[in-house]
Structures are given as C-alpha cells and as structure tokens.
Amino acid sequence: MSTSSLLYPCSHEYGSMEPMTGDLLLFYLSEESLEESQGLMRHQINLKTFYPIIAFLFEYLRRVSNPKDFDHPAHSRKILDAPVPKVRRASRSSQVLNHTVVLGEEHKGMDTSFGLVHWNQHDIKFVDIFKIYYQTLREITIPEMTTAICMTLLAEIYSTDYASLTDSTNGPKPCFRLEFGQSPISDFGICRGKIQSKRSCVQVWSYYDPRDDVRHTLTDPNNYYWIYFKTIRGDLITLDCCSYSFGMESFVDAGPYIGKLPSYVRSVESARIPAFFHTSQEEHRRPYHLVEEKRISVMHNKRLHSALSTRTPHTENLMQAEIIREFYDEVIGRKCTDKEAGKVKSYRMHSTAVLNEVLTGGYWREWDKPAVFRENLLKGGTNGWSDLQTLFKDSASVQAHYEWLDKVCPPRNKKAVHNLATLDKLIGRAVN
C-alpha cells in the first residue's frame, strides 16, 4: 500500500492530491462542503453505530501485551485479599471510596491457561475473581490508549488511501467522514479532567505489598481522560471507555461489530465492552460527573497532521516521532517517559491494523444501533458460571476454556484443582 494522504481532499485522479490547508480543512468540515461533495464523499461513518468499535479498541489494546509485561503490580503477584468490585451508591459528589488489595508471593503463571486459578488466594467464587481481574486490567495505561486511539482515528478515517473501496478503477479514491446522525464531526480529541461521584460512587483501588510496605495506586480521579467529538452544529459528544476502573458500569455489545474481524482481534474474552456515549443533553444519564479541565484537539493539530501522514508508526521518521511525543506531553501535562512513548507507538500500530480492517471491509455500513447494558454482567449463577458463559458467548475458543474451568474448578472445589493430569487433559481439549 502506498503512503497515504492524511486530511487530503478527494481527487478525480490518483496523482493529483494536494495537502489540505487550514482554510481548506475548515471548508471540508463545513455544511457547504457536505452539500458540494455528495458525489465524492460516499463514506459517511455515523458515530451512533461506530462508537462500539472505538470502545472495542480500548479492550483489544488492554489484551495486546497485558498481562504478559506486568504493567499492573497485581499481575505478577498472588492476591491474598481483595474487595469484589461492584457499583456502589454515592452519598455526595466529593465522595471517593478507597479499596486495598493485599499482594502475596510471586505469581509467574498469569498468562497461562489456568493462571487465574492460582492467582487469587482468598475464598471467593471464581466469577468474583474475574471481576477483580477486569478491575486490574482496565486500570492500566489509560492516557496512552486514549491518545493512540485518537491518533489512529485521525490517520485512518481522514485518509484517501483506500483504493479497494473505489467504485471503479478510474474513479476517485474515497474519503471518509465521521458524523453524528446527519451532522459532520468538526472536531475531536482528548479531554483531561476529573471524574466525580454522582449517583454512583467513585472508587479507587490500591495494591499493598506487605513485603516492602509499599502501596501502588494506578488511577487518580483528579487526572482522568476521555474522548470528545464536536459537530458543526455545536453538539458535544463524549465517549468514556475507562470509567469502569473507577467503579462505573455501562456496557455496549460489540459482538455484531467484531464478528468479521480476524480471529486474533476477536481474542478478547468478552464482546461486551465498557463505554459511556452521551451528548451534552444526555449527561444526566451518566451516573457520575466528568469535569473537563483541558481539551486537546487531535483533528485540528496541524503539526500532528504531518506527523501522522505516514499512518503506520513503524515507517515514521525521527521528526514525526518527536512531534507525536510532544503531543503526548501536552495530553498528560508533563514530559513523558520512554516507556510511555513506546506504549503509545505500540498501541497505534495495533489499533491501526484493526481500524484498517474495518474500513477496507466496509463493515460499518451493516451496523445497527448497538445494545447497551447498564448493569453488572458478572452476577454469577448457581456455581458462578451461568452469567460468565453468557458474557463470553462471542468467542467459541474462550467458551470451551470456561467449560473446562467449570468442570475442574467450581468455586472452592479444591479436590478438582490438584488433579494435574485432569488439568492437562482438559487444557488440551479446550485448546483443540
């Protein structure tokens, strides 16, 4: 695939594209442009049906390299004691409920077939172990993921390098345009601010290591990040995919949206993904407050346009990498570390592959309004598995794995756990 043209207007001949200047970009985002370009801009993407795939990118990135690189302190240690995550009612807006998870000895098998079986050492149902696991998984690298996904949206959607979607070999390359209903998106980017209690209480988990008498806290309600979109009509839309880490629950069913993606992409356990998607008129439906302190535009950052013009991170030059790093510095309000910059680059590479698959496949054309669930999906059944098997119904291989766990490790049935021969036999059956 040739190098793409980021934020270039569609041309009638492949070789005649010109960079989009500030004035031209404003025209591109205007009502006049929408009316005049109906014949060219065929590919309008409606956020109302597209946002589940953006939310899915967060969940996918959480599983790309974790827990193997142990970004989270609890993923390399056994859990001696932990509260079970659940939504809790708030008594006041300033309320923050703090939880402590006690860490035990080293745990080196987190990424093995039965890593979770031996991870949690206190007497709770296995379904509750999954709640604790999801809590830890969704706490990591929130600003890195948010930044990488926004950059990918800009580089992939506002690009003309999708010849496979051209109606004829001689026709113009197609453009994409994000819309909310019939109103084009004129700006999008990242909000930094605070998350505060409203109906539901903001919760913060800390991880205490008694060996070193050290407490690790990965989330800060006063330093939170989410995505905003603004339409040319002035509507403001927020997409928050990380508030689960503070005890908030709303899930969108991404199952219909990822069904045609490659199997390696669909390897996440659940297709029901945390997401709050609201307009400014719908904020009352959100059970918590988002207090915006800074808004950082991705769409209108001209330096970022040039840095993302190659689309794929592994082909960018040193100057482009430095611009991207400076932008991330602005997002987090300080100089980032090499590890953080590396995470942003890695997440961009993975999210680019997924979004490229979605756009070239034209899958968004088939999507309907998503199903949204406002309650905890991990309630547990007679032995803690009925809801898990419903929750993970979208992955046949994972379903087989949980059926195996149901046989060998029902809640606190220790006699079933120690039979390693049975474990090995059933692991092979689940994998095959």
Map the helices and strands.
Elements: H1 22-28, H2 31-36, E1 43-46, H3 47-64, E2 77-81, E3 96-106, H4 115-119, H5 126-137, H6 142-157, E4 176-180, E5 183-197, E6 202-209, E7 214-217, E8 224-231, E9 236-240, E10 251-253, H7 255-258, E11 272-274, E12 276-279, E13 288-297, H8 302-307, H9 318-332, H10 338-361, E14 372-373, H11 386-391, H12 396-408, H13 414-417, H14 420-431
Parallel strand pairs: 1-4, 3-6
Antiparallel strand pairs: 2-3, 4-5, 5-8, 5-13, 6-7, 8-9, 9-12, 10-11, 10-14
Helix pairs in contact: 3-10, 6-10, 12-14
Account of the protein in words:
The structure is a single chain. Helix 12 runs antiparallel to helix 14. The chain is globular and about 55 Å long. The chain has helices at 22-28, 31-36, 47-64, 115-119, 126-137, 142-157, 255-258, 302-307, 318-332, 338-361, 386-391, 396-408, 414-417, 420-431, and strands at 43-46, 77-81, 96-106, 176-180, 183-197, 202-209, 214-217, 224-231, 236-240, 251-253, 272-274, 276-279, 288-297, 372-373. Strands 1, 4, 5, 8, 9, 12 and 13 form a 7-stranded mixed β-sheet that branches. Strands 2-3-6-7 form a 4-stranded mixed β-sheet, with no helix packed on it. It has a 3-stranded antiparallel β-sheet with strand order 11-10-14. The protein is an alpha+beta fold and 432 residues long. The longest helix is centred in the C-terminal third of the chain and has 24 residues, at 338-361.
